[in-house]
């Protein structure tokens, strides 16, 4: 596979189903007290070792520009751009590295409040309701969520699970979330390399007002545009070349939106 690939988000993929919970925050608005601020969750050396804000990025380093996210170019790294079928827009970037997969998404966040603590609690609750398991553990990057997600076979048979690790870092006015799957989950050295990859990402929040928990817009890299316009481009790739401005899920503005 080349550096870039497109993939539609299917409803039968358990990791994708769980990931979408981080976008739809209606239940979170109901469950969390607006008067209680959530502290940010990030490594103490985040500004020096990442994930980086666009103002902190190394200008001499070469990045793949995806709009709201920039990925440092490196040998052996594959990028999969995931398209939401209902809106035909890019909604996630999956990094394929050393046989494991790290899916990343960036969201707008309040200036003085973090999102990882409440989102982590919501994920754990909803994954458990779906029949999976979620255990919070401490890691060098901060609190992570070790999960086993229920897998439903095409024939309707269940009973199997798929492991995934949810990681998150609160930055200045943004939140970066990752989902790690594959061999790295059982190999501490590989886990460390994937976490370093996660921490090398640059988030481009921009200065304009964006509601908290809104997915930052992703765009097709210039290197991919020519491939999308080629005669043999797939329908999914052509649709992704013109991502919709619509947002994922419904938004209910709260008093905290003004802080964004």
Automatic annotation (TrEMBL):
Comp. bias intervals (Acidic residues): 24-38
Region described as Disordered: 15-59, 227-260
InterPro entries, alphabetized: DUF3710
Biased composition, class Basic residues, residue ranges: 249-260
Record's compositionally biased regions (Basic and acidic residues): 39-51
UniProt biased composition (Low complexity): 230-241
A Pfam family this chain is assigned to: DUF3710
Protein name: DUF3710 domain-containing protein
């Amino acid at each position: 596979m080349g550096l870039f690939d497109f993939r539609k988000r299917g409803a039968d993929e358990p990791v994708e189903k769980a990931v979408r919970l981080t976008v739809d925050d209606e239940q979170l608005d109901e469950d969390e007290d607006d008067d209680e601020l959530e502290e940010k969750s990030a490594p103490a050396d985040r500004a020096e070792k990442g994930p980086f804000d666009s103002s902190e990025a190394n200008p001499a380093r070469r990045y793949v520009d995806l709009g709201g996210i920039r990925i440092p170019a490196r040998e052996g790294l594959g990028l999969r751009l995931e398209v939401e079928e209902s809106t035909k827009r890019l909604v996630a970037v999956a990094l394929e590295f050393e046989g494991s997969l790290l899916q990343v998404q960036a969201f707008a966040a309040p200036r003085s409040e973090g999102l990882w603590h409440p989102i982590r609690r919501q994920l754990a609750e909803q994954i458990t309701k779906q029949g999976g398991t979620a255990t919070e553990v401490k890691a060098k990057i901060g609190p992570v969520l070790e999960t086993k997600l229920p897998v439903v076979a095409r024939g309707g048979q269940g009973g199997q699970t798929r492991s995934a690790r949810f990681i998150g870092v609160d930055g200045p006015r943004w939140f970066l979330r990752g989902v790690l799957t594959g061999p790295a989950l059982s190999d501490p050295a590989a886990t460390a390399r994937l976490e370093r990859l996660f921490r090398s990402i640059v988030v481009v929040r921009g200065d304009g007002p964006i509601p908290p928990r809104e997915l930052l817009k992703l765009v097709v890299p210039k290197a991919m545009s020519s491939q999308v316009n080629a005669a043999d481009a797939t329908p999914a790739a052509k649709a992704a070349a013109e991502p919709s401005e619509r947002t994922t899920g419904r938004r209910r503005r709260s008093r905290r939106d003004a802080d964004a």
